[in-house]
């Protein structure tokens, strides 16, 4: 039986470890040819090492799959383009880009440095924009040449820290919320070429999260295994998902769900005098649904 992604060419960024590694392995198991990108830096983004990407490629090849490694910095404009070009040159085309690479530099807002802010915003936001931009241009030209939908896929990575908020992560959360908005807008822009854009907010125990959320018990290891996140990513990468775009997916060992975006809540007639706003504003707050917590439920 053919795999779900048989013959499709997929780039996975940050695929040397954790969730990205599971994406790459499962894509290959389902017949995809994979570009395994990983800068190989530390959790805070410093340093580089191609061996994590090479290791995943070796695993894929050992099972009879096709893969190549790539060490590009996805937040570097030219390196992101070179990564897209490598996929096309190596495998003859490009079908899917999964923007998964990320770093953490958690700090309370009052203690956060400019460098800690800039590094996280660059890797997550620009590191999503740059590969997507170059892939989108490739697909736009292909659509012009063929006159047919290209069946391309962009799968971005957000976080419950971004869509719901988490103390100590103003940089990371802002970047992840930005990626959510980026995905919705890109989905609208790219549908004319036959490209879908979706976003995943994964819940998994990786080197970026192992120090968050309490002790690493065996039960937590099972429930938060990154393998739970891979199936929805692989399905979104397949041709079966052609009618699904602009969605935010929550995926973990505990839940598979769609997180719904901002909706207008209670309304009132505007007034010009700020002295009159108080009672109106307080009434709107009283009638509005509370913000959600990290579990997606209303905060107390």
Could you describe the 3D structure shown?
The protein has 300 residues and is of the alpha/beta class. The protein folds into two domains: 9-259, NAD(P)-binding Rossmann-like Domain (Rossmann fold, 3-Layer(aba) Sandwich); 263-300, no CATH class. The protein is built from nine helices and eight strands. The protein has helices spanning 18-29, 51-62, 77-91, 114-146, 160-163, 170-190, 218-223, 230-237, 274-287; strands at 9-12, 33-37, 66-70, 96-98, 152-157, 195-202, 248-251, 256-259. It has an eight-stranded mixed beta sheet, with helices on both faces. β7 (248-251) and β8 (256-259) form a beta hairpin. The longest helix has 33 residues, at 114-146. The chain is globular and about 70 Å long. The N and C termini lie far apart (50 Å).
| CATH superfamily annotation of the largest domain | NAD(P)-binding Rossmann-like Domain
Name the helix and strand elements from N-terminus to C-terminus, one letter apiece: EHEHEHEHEHHEHHEEH
**Total DSSP E strands:** 8
Strand arrangement within the widest β-sheet reads 3-2-1-4-5-6-7-8
Task: Bin the helical content.
Answer: 40-55%
Sheet/helix structural class: alpha/beta
Please write the CATH class name of the largest domain: Alpha Beta
For the residues shown, what is the average pLDDT?
Answer: 92
Q: How many domains, in number, for the residues?
A: 2
CATH architecture of the largest domain: 3-Layer(aba) Sandwich
What is Rg?
20 Å
Number of helices: 9
What is the overall silhouette? Answer: globular
Report low-confidence residues grouped into runs of 5 or more: none
Strand content: 5-15%
* Terminal-residue CA separation: 50 Å
């Amino acid at each position: 039986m053919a795999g779900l992604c048989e013959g499709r060419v997929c780039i996975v960024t940050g695929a040397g470890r954790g969730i990205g590694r599971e994406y790459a392995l499962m894509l290959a198991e389902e017949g995809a040819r994979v570009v395994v990108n990983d800068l190989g830096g530390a959790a805070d983004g410093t340093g580089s090492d191609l061996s994590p990407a090479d290791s995943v490629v070796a695993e894929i090849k050992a099972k009879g799959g096709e893969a190549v490694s790539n060490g590009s910095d996805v937040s570097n404009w030219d390196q992101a383009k070179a990564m897209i070009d490598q996929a096309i040159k190596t495998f003859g085309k490009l079908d899917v880009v999964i923007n998964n690479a990320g770093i953490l530099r958690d700090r309370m807002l009052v203690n956060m440095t400019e460098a800690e802010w800039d590094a996280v915003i660059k890797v997550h936001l620009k590191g999503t924009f740059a590969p997507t931009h170059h892939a989108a241009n490739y697909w736009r030209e292909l659509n012009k040449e063929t006159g047919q939908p290209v069946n391309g896929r962009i799968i971005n990575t957000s976080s419950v820290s971004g869509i719901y908020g988490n103390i100590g992560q103003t940089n990371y959360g802002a970047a992840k919320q930005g990626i959510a908005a980026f995905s919705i807008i890109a989905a609208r822009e790219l549908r004319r070429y036959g490209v879908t854009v979706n976003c995943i907010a994964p819940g998994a125990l990786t080197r970026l999260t192992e120090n968050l959320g309490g002790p690493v018990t065996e039960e937590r290891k099972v429930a938060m295994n990154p393998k739970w996140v891979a199936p929805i990513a692989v399905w979104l990468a397949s041709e079966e998902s052609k009618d699904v775009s602009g969605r935010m997916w929550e995926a973990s060992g505990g839940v598979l769900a769609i997180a719904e975006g901002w909706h207008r809540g209670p309304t009132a007639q505007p007034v010009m005098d700020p002295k009159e706003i108080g009672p109106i504003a307080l009434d709107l707050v009283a009638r509005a649904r509370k913000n959600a917590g990290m579990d997606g439920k209303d905060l107390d």
